Amino acid sequence: MSAGGQAGAGVAGGDAASAGPPPRGAQLLSALFYGTCSFLLVLVNKALLTTYRFPSPMILGIGQMAATIMILYVSKLNKIIHFPDFDKKIPVKLFPLPLLYVGNHISGLSSTSKLSLPMFTVLRKFTIPLTLLLETIILGKQYSVNIIVSVFAIILGAFIAAGSDLAFNLEGYIFVFLNDIFTAANGVYTKQKMDPKELGKYGVLFYNACFMIVPTLVLSASTGDLRQATEFNQWKNVLFLIQFLLSCFLGFLLMYSTVLCSHYNSPLTTAVVGAIKNVSVAYIGMLVGGDYIFSVLNFVGLNICMAGGLRYSFLTLSSQFKPKPLADEESIPPDLKG
C-alpha cells in the first residue's frame, strides 16, 4: 500500500508540471521510476509465465487493467487525483489508444512467455527506431546523426543476435515485433492525447483500461484462454498468488510510470530508458530462467545491441538534462512549453 501512496503523491502534483517546462529532477526521477517498474514487471511476468507455466497471458493483462481501474477510481473518489467524468465524446478523443493499449498488453505478455529473456530484450529494442520514426511523422521531431547512428547499431546487434538464436521461436518473434509496434504507437499517441485540458494523463490511463477490459475478457473466453486460467492448478499456491497480485499492481505502476515519463520527457526518452533497463534484464536472463542457449555470435550480437542502446541512451538523456537542450536531439514538446 505504501507504493500506491507514493504513486498517489506523484499523481497529486502531476498536472501542475504542465504549466511550464518540467523540472530536471522530475524528468530524471520519472525516468528512473519507469525503468525500475519495467524491470521488476518483466522478471515477475517471466516467473509466472515460464516458471509456473501460467497458461493465460490475457488474464494476466486483465488483472493489470482491473488493478489500474480500481486504484485510479479510488484515488479520484478520495480527491487524490482528478480526471473528467465519462461523456460520449471521450471514446472519440481517446481513439486509437484503447486498441493500441490492449494490443501492447497481450503481445508483450505472449512474447515474454515464448522467448528467453536475453532475446526478448534484444528484439524489444526495435521499439526505439519505430518510436523515432513515429515521432518524426506524427509529432514532427528531428534527431541528430549521432542518435540515428546509435539506432542503426541497435538494429545491427539485434539482427546478429536474432540470426544466431539457437532457441528460435517464430510465434515468439511475431508477438515481440507486434509488441514493438504497439509500444511505439501507444507511446507517441499517448503523448499526443495527454492534454491536461482534455483527459489528462490519468484520464487516458483510466478510460483506456475501462474501454478494453470487457472486450479482452470476451476475447479470452472465446479463445479458451479464460478456461485454461480457471483450470490452472496453482491457484491454491500462496507464492503464486502473491506473484500474480504483484504483477497486477506492477502492471498499474508500469502504465502510470510510462505516462509520467512521457509527460515529463518524451515517448523517445521512455523507449531509451527501457533500453537501459534491458541491459540488466538480458544479462540476468543468461544466469536465471534456464531458457537461454549460448552461442558466440548470439552473445556478440547481444553486446553490440546493448552498447548501441547505452550510447543512444547517453546521447538523448545527457542532452535533455543540459540547461539548454539541443533541439535536434530532444526538443521540448509544445504542451510542456511555458
From TrEMBL:
The chain crosses the membrane at residues 28-48, 54-74, 143-161, 173-190, 202-218, 238-256, 268-286, 292-314. Residues 30-313 form the Sugar phosphate transporter domain. It is a multi-pass membrane protein. The keyword 4Fe-4S does not apply. The lineage of its organism: Eukaryota, Metazoa, Chordata, Craniata, Vertebrata. InterPro entries: Sugar_P_trans_dom, TPT_transporter. It is found in: Membrane. This is Nucleotide sugar transporter SLC35D2 isoform X1. Keywords: Membrane, Sugar transport, Transmembrane, Transmembrane helix, Transport.
